[in-house]
Amino acid sequence: MQPFVSVIVPCYNEEKTIRHLLSAVFAQTYPRAQMELIISDGLSTDRTRVVIAEFQTEHPDLNVRVVDNEVKTIPSGLNQAIRESRGEIIVRLDAHSMPIPEYVERCVAAHQAGKGENIGGVWEIRPGAETWIAESISFAAAHPLGVGDAMYRLNAKAGAVDTVPFGSFKRTLIEKIGPFDETLLANEDYEFNTRVREAGGVVWLDPSIRSVYFSRSTIGTLATQYLRYGFWKRRMLQRYPHTLRWRQALPPVFVLSLDVLTVLSLWVVLARYLLAAQILLYFSVLFLAGLELAIQKRKAFLVFGLPLAISTMHITWGVGFLISPFRKDG
After folding, report:
1. Candidates 3.40.50.970, 3.90.550.10, 3.40.50.720, 3.40.109.10; correct CATH number of 5-217?
2. Where are the domains of the chain?
3. Nearest to 153 by CA among 192, 92, 211
4. Does the pTM of the predicted model rise above 0.70?
5. What pLDDT digit, counting tens, does each position of 110-134 carry?
6. DSSP string, 230-271
C-alpha cells in the first residue's frame, strides 16, 4: 500500500484562488483514500470558507479538513496543519498554487527513490488577474533580472539546490530538525531548508514536479509582498549569514547607493552625475529586457510593464532588507 499523504495549505482570504487548489488536489493521480488535505485558515473574512464548504459537499470522497490558524501567520499555519495531519509524507502547497495531477505521485516516488529529505519542483507562474499589469508581474516573477538564480522559477535540471517552493518531506524530518520557525513571518521555507542542509540532508529539485503559481495582480500587493520578503530575509540571515547569495545582496546595495548618492548630490556635483548614470543604466537594462520580451511574446505593454514590476520588486525588497534592524516586526 502507498504511504498516506497529508497535503497541508496555509490560507487567508483566498476566495479567488482556493477553488483552483481544491480542484487540482482532487484531480491528483495519487489514490484518494491515501490522501488528506488540511487547510490551516487564518480566520478568513471573505468567502474562502464558503468556497471550501461548497467543495466539500460536492466532493465528499476527498478528505478535506479546515483548522483554525489563530496566530494568522504562514509558519504557524503550517505547523498547525502538521500537528493535525496524520500522513507519513507531508506535501506543502499554497492557496495561490495549482499542482499538476501527478504532483503528489511524483513527490512520493522521489522520496521512495531516496532523492532527498525535502523534495519539490518548479513553478509555472501565471497572472493573478486579467490585466496588463498582472501579466507584467507574472513575467517579472519568472525573469532572471527579477529572481536571479532561483532555479525553481527558471528552466531547471534535477539536482540538489538551496531551496524549493513548498516542498514535500517525511514526518520524521520534522522530528529530526523541528517545525517551521514561527518567529519568521516570511522566508520560512528557506530557513527550513537551511536546517535540512545543515543537518546533512538534501533539498532536491525535480522539474517533473510542477505547479502553477498565481502571482500578485497589482503593483501595490507586489510591493507589500517584496517588502516583507526583504524584511524577513534580513532576520533569517542574522542566524545564517553564510547563506547569503549574490542575488539577495544586490537590491539592498542598489537602494543604499541611491540613498547615499541622493544625499550627496545636494552638495557634490559628481554625485549628481553618478546618480543620474546609475538610474539611466538601471532602467536602460530593464527597458531592453522589456523590449526583448515584448517582441518575443508579442505584448507591447511589456516594454513598460516588465521594468515597472522588476524595479518594484528590487526596490521594495531592498528597502525591507535595510529597515529590518530598525523595526520589531514586518
Report:
1. 3.90.550.10
2. 5-217, 235-326
3. 211
4. yes
5. 999 999 999 999 888 899 899 999 9
6. HHHHHHHHHH-GGG--HHHHHHHHHHHHHHHHHHHTTT-HHH
